[in-house]
Amino acid sequence: MAARGNYNYDLQQNLKTLETDGIIGLKSAFTLEWADAMREDMMTAFWSAIQRPGGAVGRGPRRWYVEIHPQDFGGFVDLVTHPWVTGICQSMLGVDYQIVEIGLDVPFQGAKYQPWHRDFPSPRDTYVNRRITSLAFNLTGVDVTEDMGPFEIAPGTQWEDGREWKHEMFPEKDIWPRFAERAVPKYPSRGDISCRSALAVHRGTQHGSPTARPVLVLGVDAPGAGHAELHDMMVTQDYFDALPEQVKKHLICRVVDTLIPVTQKHDIEGLVMGADPV
Predict the structure, then answer these.
(1) Number of domains into which the chain is organized
(2) Which of 13, 126, 166, 228 is spaced 20 to 30 Å from 135 by Cα?
């Protein structure tokens, strides 16, 4: 089955937009069949994780995050070798970029607005030197509609200092309207891929649809960014041996005899409760 779709993009323009807005996207990067297989893998992983202690972490009412191992996702190699993904990583993070996270975020009917937030505190290299040191690639498992709680992002906010915010991640509520005024909702379709700075202020919104909206998350760091310690990816020796050399070079993981289900480490306490739609 052919996996890759669209190769028609202007990488240099994409990089400029990523620096300006904090987010970019590529339509139809993968085929619909590939995206549907990804959804099946995500939901299989979710239903397995939700049944064991520490397997899933709440990111708000009726919203969970599950970290998985690369070989739990059949399309992993297709994703991390797509030329758009590798081109962005090399150009923005350097030739020795590190793949540190693979997981999925799943909101269900009843999920509430999240507070405006970023995924971790901004490093000095970003708020002073205006250098992006970490990227999150996202792929939707469904064609997103208005009632599915679309992701919202406030473009350009990846450069804000944020050291005075709670945990350096959560702006005070009295400045939420500033982000809401700039908010751009995203309505990706199956096969699309986006890339964003996890420091750009964003939120999930209220999910009224009976259809879940699983989203795959690929986390990539520049050397020294330090997020690998928040995760514990593993692969078996036979899987690692079969990986292309370009993937082995960038994948930060343990090689083990037997996979151990992930116990989630990256618990964002401020997302546990819902928020008002300010």
Answers:
(1) 1
(2) 166
Alpha-carbon distance of 100 to 97, in angstroms, equals 9
- In three-state secondary structure terms, 178 is helix
Overall pTM > 0.90: yes
Is the residue at 12 inside a domain? no
Q: Is residue 278 part of a domain?
A: no
Kindly state the tokens that stand for 116.
């405006």
Which tokens hold the place of 239? Answer: 């899987």
The helix (run of H) or strand (run of E) holding residue 128 is: none
Q: Is 157 exposed, middle or buried (0-12, 13-18, 19+ CB in 10 A)?
A: buried
Quote the tokens at residue 138. 């996202």
- Over its C-alpha atoms, the chain yields an Rg (Å, rounded) of 18
Q: What is the CATH number of the domain that holds 186?
A: 2.60.120.620
Residues 105/78, Cβ–Cβ less than 8 Å? no
CA 257/CA 187 separation, integer angstroms: 40
Residue 34 falls within a domain, yes or no? yes
DSSP state of 257: S
Question: Is 241 contained in some domain?
Answer: yes
